[in-house]
What does this fold into?
Amino acid sequence: MNISEAVKLLSNDINNISIECANRVTEFYTSDSDKIVSDNDFGSIVVEFEYLFLHVVDRYAHMTLSENVRDKFIEALGINIIDLNYKNYGFNIEKKLFEDAKKYEINMLNKRSHEYSKYKKLFPDQGEGTGNTLFWEFGKKITSEYLHSHNPAVIVKCAIAASDIILKGNLEEKLKMIA
It folds into this structure.
């Protein structure tokens, strides 16, 4: 599979699983209360999951691809996901505003990737605590910034949603198929 084919395949996967994860988390959050998640917050949660999954794909890419291929692949993947978001969500904005938004999203993606690189483990090993793992810290971020809560059950739901998808996504195998 060439880079272009891999970008198309994984960008659609990342977009779809990010929506699935955001749905799982917000449905859990609103299931036993009168809480509501705004469309804007839901969209932000989807994008945050995309940033997370792009970062995880990049971690796998470091292990499976040459540096040159990895750099081209990750850059193209990030840009394609941003383009998908604008296309799929009907953002009908001028070309100049779209280019500005794309620059902003690329900057945010880089910022999140730097932030997430602090966490060496995605999730804890058997018997370890959850703190200082990528998915736990991600769950805390989503819960506090977009759901305005500090409920540990919601944090756990975010972490589980992300880890379930990563474990089922066969990312490493898909990356190994890139020529």
